[in-house]
Amino acid sequence: MDQAEKLRKLVKEQNSPKPTSRVITVTSGKGGVGKSSISVNLALALSRLGKKVLILDADFGLANIEVMLGIRPKYNLADLMFKGKNLPDIITNGPENIGFISGGSGIQELTNLTKDQIIYLINKLVELDQTVDIIIIDTGAGITDSVLQFATASSEILLVTTPEPTSITDAYALLKTLNKKAIFSVEDTAIRLIANRVTLDEKADDIYEKLKTVASKFLNLNLDYLGYIPLDNTVSKAVIRQQPVISVYPNSSFAKQINSFAMKLCDTDMEINQRKKGITQVFLKLLRSRIQK
Ligand SMILES: Nc1ncnc2c1ncn2[C@@H]1O[C@H](COP(=O)(O)OP(=O)(O)OP(=O)(O)O)[C@@H](O)[C@H]1O
């Protein structure tokens, strides 16, 4: 049996543990549309609704979230995988009790794990699943393998676009590529659109309706709508202060929309519970798709 086959077998053999965390993957076709701003502030808004929230930054090389939260993690996921670090070592405490894990090079290195390292990682993820209510994954930008793998492995996707035509066509391209993946399951995945940086003269609902129509007609995909966020200069002001928008500008239109999204997401808790798979399952799926490549 070659190494790839052994890993395939091992990943298949892992029993599905009882999941507890809800994984929400924030993604986009085009970069720079507001994924990190939305992830950070949504995490805080959900935490204020009583959820234990953690952000996983899967955007290798960029430290946007760290800047937005004003934190500097000492270790990352790769340190857990290769240096035997424990969860408390790699979870940095952010504002208002939210936790943060930097993926570091860990996401890329998933393919290079030994059997013992996979078992160690999976055990730690099971532990994480049991301690956290919601995990928000901020994926990298663009239609890369890593973004697609996270999106296919998650049961809840928040797809962010701006009204720019290139951002909308890239969002559609992402859906199209996702839909072609053998392991992508339409029934098991809720995809919700967020239109960000919308100005008064742009009709956010039209963006959704157009994307929904083409996704349904050409891809047979159902696209839901979480809502829109106006273009709001408090977002960049908050970045300069290295604090989340909803902490420093709680009455801004950005903060109000984020709070309403958090409430909507909690409203659908019941429905999502049936699909809830947890972070362990997401990583098992990621491992499977990488081994199959
Ligand atoms: N609603 C908004 N109004 C005004 N500016 C915004 C809004 N949302 C995000 N921005 C700004 O847009 C820029 C990109 O935001 P952000 O870094 O969150 O995007 P991203 O999708 O995570 O980027 P990347 O693809 O590089 O990871 C930042 O300068 C941010 O301040």
TrEMBL record:
SUPFAM superfamilies: P-loop containing nucleoside triphosphate hydrolases (SSF52540). GO terms for molecular function: ATP binding; ATP hydrolysis activity. One of its GO terms (cellular component) is cytosol. Keywords: ATP-binding, Nucleotide-binding. Pfam families: ParA (PF10609). It comes from the Bacteria. ATP binds at residues 30-37. One of its GO terms (biological process) is negative regulation of cell division. This is MinD/ParA family protein. It comes from Herbinix luporum.
